[in-house]
Amino acid sequence: MNKDFIDALNHLAADKNLDKMQLLASFEEALEQAYERNVEPGKDIDVVIDPNSGEMEVLVIRRVVEEIEDPDKEILLSEALELDDTVEVGMEMEFPVDPEKFTRIAVQTTKQVITQKIREAERQLVFDEYRDRSGEVITGIVTRTDNKRNVFVDLGKGEAIMPHKEQIPGERYMVGMRIKVYVMNVEQSNRGPSILVSRAAPELLEYLMRQEIPEVTDGTVEIKSVAREAGQRSKVAVTSSNPNVDPIGACIGHRGSRIQAVTGELQRERVDIIMWDANPREFIRNALSPAKVGAIEVNTDSGDATITVSHDQLSLAIGKGGQNVRLAAKLTGYKIDLNATDVISDLDAALQAAALDTEPATSTSSESKRAAFDALFRDTPQGESEETEESESA
Questions:
Q1: How many other CB atoms sit within 10 Å of the CB of residue 181?
Q2: Bridge partners (DSSP) listed for residue 159
Q3: Which H/E stretch holds residue 153?
Q4: pTM (2 decimals)?
């Protein structure tokens, strides 16, 4: 060992972004293991390397005892006193060993252990970098794919995996492509840190809206809930803390410019902006738009909602493949049951009448309609006509 070794160690630490002293300690530990395994089996070895000069010292550690049980690790008190008259039972003594005793096998073993230690240190650095970043959105670069259709993304200091189920259906991931991903989970495993990312998570849609819509960024418009079927359609419930700000209009933007900027990142996924309401009935009604529904019965304890829908609105409420009602259920948190009926023809009028506990206006009698029609085109006022008829009869 010499100064060149320390220079090489410094370069390695800088290149791998590792701590020099931690790397030096790993090197010492590797040398100890190699020496114990190949040169002095069964003995306690301590290797010390000077961090400045690179000089190495190899020591055999033996404990002072009155009766020897393990001669490789112990020394009699009488023998120890001949070497140092201050030692006592239980103390440890160090005996230098010639470093030249290292064999080629020991050096090779040291190289393997050092490589493993460097790999472990790199993995720990990656884990430390990303373990507190779960729930964040990070821009990465696609590096490769495998035969299981997993996509691997370089996040800068670590590589993440995006399983097929977390990808946007129909989106093609080319090597070198820059994409935004949501960090779902970071775990440490035997193979190193496992970083799971997603492009299908609702949180990614919410992040993009915060980036593109100033009112959402500053908190004027609040996103209450998000329901998403990646690559196809999403529903976002919003509300505003400012009565002068229309939350839906703010999210959509002039001619849809804001929401188009969001969907452009998500393969033109359709995003419906829904008005949130503290009243669960009204919230469910809004969530089922564009369908117009009738009476809504809500059981807050069981989380069930039974909704009356006219036949002409039923398919619209259900949506293609049940998508509209499925997203509405995710958005509101209620299990939605749609009941078709022929009773209601004008839903809005019927609901208003039910709210006022009155009968909706049906039809006026033909006589009253005729009287109203004649009154519009009568040449003389009704009072004058009656006076003329009375004078003529007189």
A1: 25
A2: 154
A3: strand 151-154
A4: 0.66
| 14 and 117 in a common domain | yes
Q: Given the structure tokens 């010390």, which residue do they identify?
A: 48
- Per-position DSSP letters for 64-130, written without gaps between them: EESS-S-TTTEEEHHHHHHH-TT--TT-EEEEEE-GGG--HHHHHHHHHHHHHHHHHHHHHHHHHHH
- Residue 154 clears pLDDT 80, i.e. is over it: yes
pLDDT tens profile 279-306 = 999 999 999 999 999 999 999 999 999 9
Give the HSE-up count for residue 253: Cα atoms under 13 Å, Cβ half-sphere.
Answer: 14
- 30: alpha, beta or left? (left if phi > 0; alpha if psi -120 to 50): alpha
State both tokens at 103: 């064999």
> Among the three residues 276, 309, 342, which one is the final residue of a domain in this structure?
276
Instruction: Write the pLDDT tens digit of every residue in 260-282.
Output: 999 999 988 999 999 999 999 99
Q: Report the chain's mean pLDDT, rounded to a whole number.
A: 83
Residue 360 pLDDT more than 80? no
Predicted local confidence at residue 355, as pLDDT: 52
Q: What's the pLDDT at 387?
A: 45
Same domain, 185 and 230: no
The rounded distance, in Å, linking the Cα atoms of 47 and 33 is 10
Number of domains in the chain: 4
223 SS3 class: strand
Closest CA to 194 of 137, 149, 167, 155: 155
CB 205 within 8 A of CB 262: yes
The encoded tokens of residue 269 equal 């996924």
Q: Is residue 394 part of a domain?
A: no
Q: What own/partner pairs with CB < 8 Å and gap ≥ 24 does 367-373 have? A: none
Helix (H, G, I), strand (E, B) or coil at 329: helix
Helix (H) / strand (E) element for 144: namely: strand 137-145
**pLDDT value at residue 204:** 96
State which residues form the domain around 74. Answer: 3-128
Average pLDDT over residues 206-220: 94
Cβ count near 245 (within 10 Å): 12
Say what the pLDDT of residue 327 is: 97
